[in-house]
Task: structure prediction
Amino acid sequence: MIGNILAASLAAYLYGFKTETIRLSLETFIPSPALTPGRMNIFNFKDFTVMIDFAHNPAGFIAIHEFLSTVQATKKIGIIAGVGDRRDQDIVDVGRLGAEMFDHIIIRQEKNLRGRTEENIITLIVQGIQSVDRKVTYETIPKEVEAIKHAISIAEPGTFITALSDVVTNAIDIVQEYLDKEAGI
Result:
């Protein structure tokens, strides 16, 4: 997120930090679930990779799409959801963008209904998925934890799973639990 880095660097400079200190901070910063939960947290398993990000609107999906276009994977699985207090078109766009970047989509919708029904949000997401002229499979698993477990269970060697989550601590905990099991911890 270059824009965020530039803004933070400028703010630090204006606040009186020396450029050497800012440079050192940028060079030694390592994004991780502990330091930046929900911001491109990547977990490398033996045969596949899982990324968790807080993207939950079209702008966030576009940024993830740009990143995923650089990722080599045999299959890309996305776990996506819509947020109820957005315009219909924004929710449709979430589905469309998901279909542009993933081979298989798991729609989950247990949180952030914000005045809509689960069925309404899912219908709009599916409308977006179906608007893309590309073969994309999808299914609905309402609960995030179950959706993540399912994505991991269907991952083939070389799969890249992206969980676009609005409750990142739950997502990070479940993925870390699976990673620990794989490591025999």
